[in-house]
Design brief:
By secondary structure, this protein is an alpha+beta fold. It is built from eleven helices and 17 strands. The radius of gyration is 23 Å and the shape is globular.
Length: 373
């Protein structure tokens, strides 16, 4: 090989190695990197950001949150200037420096239910069981912060808690922990996926339930299961096609649902509240709150989302969001779940959304990634 060609190959390899980015939050970039940043209504997230600040106790957030609190209500232009002055834009990268990932949606469903079990209402929603053991591993090993072990005691050993199949098959396992009863196992399953919802009772009144705990088993996508079984094509999988298949195959319902061993426990919450409460323990804002992987993106951080809507035109969706929630299926670096709110339109958008998109985290100037929450 000629010496000049050898040098060229060496330089190319070195440049490639140097430009390969590690997954995670990158260094600051210009605000011009955000498509249509100046066209967004940043004041729409201002109230939600102030709520996030109430939960952000880290020193790195204190100064900027105090400035936000002192600023009062802001217009779009004023809110935009506040973020530009006090924050840096940090792109999020996946393995190999990839900047695009999966963006999905979730919503607050409405189910029909009753305080009493009957032939019609025979599928329970459970509160957290008394024998569910939760070990906060971060208290023992700081490097395992945000990791919790869930199980139950058998003698002096901790063993896995009951999975979905066991709990659906034997209601005696959680007897006495029922909150109320609903009329559809399919609806119960998707309430578990969404994490919170509203229940319309027989007298027309409505109660609300929210996430209170989980059995410790990993989440598995039923859509992926049906695709692997050859029952649905990957491209046609949506909330609606999955529901249609489950309701059309009642004899296989328990078998398929059990493939997702994760099980959610609920608690009653204020039905008059504007929305469900996320993992940050603040009320979610429709179209402005997202669930993220908290091991990648700090909860409470503003996040610029660049993606598209699941409509025929694939219309752009470029706007500022707030990382205020997490989810069993929301794992990975460039991964987010948009909260759409409640109602038919919210269900439609959440049920169809499986877009590609980019994430840019807004962090206070000088924020140390190593010290994130």
């Amino acid at each position: 090989m000629p010496r000049s060609l050898l040098i060229l190959v060496f330089c190319t390899l070195m440049v490639s190695a140097c430009t390969t980015r590690s997954p995670g939050i990158g260094g600051p970039v210009e605000w011009s990197s955000l498509q249509n940043w100046t066209a967004d209504k940043q004041s729409d997230v201002w109230g939600g950001f102030l709520k996030s600040c109430q939960k952000l106790r880290q020193q790195q957030w204190q100064e900027v949150c105090q400035l936000a609190k002192n600023s009062g209500d802001l217009s779009d232009a004023e809110a935009r200037e506040f973020f530009e002055t006090n924050f840096e834009v940090r792109p999020v990268y996946a393995e190999g420096g990839i900047t695009e990932g999966l963006i999905t949606g979730y919503y607050e469903p409405l189910l029909k239910g009753s305080w009493e079990r009957s032939e019609e209402f025979r599928y329970p929603l459970y509160g957290v069981p008394e024998d569910l053991l939760i070990v906060d591993l971060g208290r023992i090993y700081p490097q395992l912060k945000n990791l919790r072990l869930r199980g139950k005691l058998v003698g002096n050993r901790v063993v896995p808690y009951y999975d979905r199949g066991q709990l659906d098959d034997d209601q005696d396992l959680l007897q006495g922990r029922e909150i109320l009863w609903v009329n559809s196992l399919v609806d119960v399953f998707f309430l578990h996926v969404q994490g919170s919802g509203r229940i319309q009772l027989e007298d027309g009144s409505t109660v609300a339930v929210g996430y209170a705990g989980q059995n410790g088993h990993p989440y598995q996508s039923i859509g992926r299961v049906l695709a692997e079984m050859g029952e649905l094509e990957k491209e046609e999988i949506t909330l609606f096609t999955i529901k249609d298949w489950l309701r059309s195959n009642p004899s296989r319902l328990n078998e398929v649902l059990a493939r997702n061993p994760s099980y959610i426990f609920f608690e009653l919450r204020d039905a008059e509240a504007n929305g469900p409460v996320g993992a940050l323990n603040v009320a979610l804002t429709p179209r402005r709150s997202i669930a993220v992987d908290r091991n990648v993106i700090p909860l409470g951080a503003p996040v610029w989302l660049q993606t598209t809507l699941p409509d025929a035109q694939q219309s752009p969706l470029n706007q500022l969001m707030l990382a205020q929630d997490t989810g069993g299926a929301i794992k990975g670096h460039v991964r987010a779940d948009v909260f759409w709110g409640r109602g038919d339109e919210a269900e439609k958008m959440a049920g169809l959304m499986k877009q590609q998109g980019k994430l840019f985290v807004l962090l206070p100037r000088g924020y140390s990634i190593e010290k994130k929450q």
